[in-house]
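Whiteboard transcription, Tuesday session. T.W. wrote the structure tokens on the left side:
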């Protein structure tokens, strides 16, 4: 089964061709990062216009790189939510037009399902498994008993970890996107005298608003006193506290659920410290992590998820497909 997939949930315009839920034949991503950098973050209206400008050329390039003609496609898949509604609708309407013009079935895929299934390009999923989802808008621990069957164990009660990274990086003057810069700065030192609060929650939930506020207050207090705080030391302590919460909650979940695999998914999965720390923490259970090209938003992951969604649901959306700015994984796949 060969699927053309589109992803436009935020500020990346992407198209990919995926075969049989395992092989990514092409994955073209046009990033708007340079456009939004001067604003210090993503501007929704600007993102929508940029998607309109690039979507057709990105689709053409994905088909060309895969050496696939439209007639060889079996279906078209597109992110239906969650995300910026204007951005989502650009991709959805492009997918509808393409599907209608070439008489192809249409599949709407949840964005987080895509992030999870990016791991399928590395190695087949072995159930039951535990997935840690870490991104700009999501921090969740999910148990999977089978393909496209998701049970929520825990989630953030306020900020997602990626959002906390970007806000702390902005206050530190590291610019946008701040996450990768903060990670690199944090790894330039091995210890710090600074202290960070330890968040403790019942169950498997997460919370990052207190940690973020502590960093902001620390910087403001130092500024009022005319003191200087070493940025590398601050970044190091913040990262250790933020990632430590992920490690603690994952270990707790593993102690109470027997699984055969642990998956890492989402944009923050690109964090090198998290990759190495989590691998050690879950051993001897194997940890599966997507390649860097499939960690951030891309259409390849949507095409991978679409194949298994089709296996479970068949083809049911059609041209009535709509976009959803707020849509949980667990409402979408019941």
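and on the right, the sequence the group agreed on:
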């Amino acid at each position: 089964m060969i699927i053309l997939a589109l992803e436009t949930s935020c500020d990346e315009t992407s198209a990919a061709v995926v075969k049989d839920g395992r092989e990514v034949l092409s994955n073209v991503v046009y990033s708007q990062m340079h456009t939004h950098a001067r604003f210090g973050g993503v501007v929704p209206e600007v993102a929508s216009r940029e998607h309109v400008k690039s979507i057709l050329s990105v689709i053409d390039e994905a088909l060309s790189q895969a050496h696939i003609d439209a007639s060889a496609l079996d279906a078209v898949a597109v992110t239906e939510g969650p995300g910026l509604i204007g951005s989502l609708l650009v991709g959805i309407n492009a997918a509808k037009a393409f599907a209608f013009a070439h008489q192809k079935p249409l599949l709407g895929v949840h964005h987080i399902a895509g992030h999870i299934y990016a791991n399928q390009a590395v190695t087949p999923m072995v159930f039951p498994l535990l997935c840690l989802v870490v991104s700009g808008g999501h921090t969740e621990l999910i148990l999977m008993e089978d393909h496209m069957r998701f049970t929520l164990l825990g989630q953030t009660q306020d900020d997602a970890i990626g959002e906390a990274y970007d806000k702390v990086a902005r206050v530190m003057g590291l610019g946008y996107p701040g996450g990768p810069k903060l990670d690199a700065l944090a790894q330039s030192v091995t210890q710090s005298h600074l202290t960070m609060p330890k968040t403790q929650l019942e169950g498997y939930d997460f919370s990052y608003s207190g940690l973020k506020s502590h960093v902001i207050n620390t910087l403001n207090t130092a500024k009022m006193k005319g003191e200087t705080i070493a940025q590398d030391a601050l970044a190091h302590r913040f990262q250790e506290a933020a990632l430590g919460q992920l490690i603690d909650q994952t270990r707790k979940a593993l102690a109470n659920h027997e699984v055969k695999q642990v998956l890492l998914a989402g944009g923050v999965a690109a964090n090198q410290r998290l990759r190495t720390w989590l691998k050690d923490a879950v051993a001897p259970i194997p940890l599966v992590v997507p390649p860097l090209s499939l960690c951030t938003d891309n259409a390849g992951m949507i095409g991978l998820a679409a194949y298994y969604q089709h296996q479970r649901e068949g083809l049911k959306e059609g041209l009535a497909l709509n976009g959803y700015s707020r849509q949980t994984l667990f409402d979408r796949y019941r």
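Someone added at the bottom: Residues 231-256 form the longest helix (26 residues).
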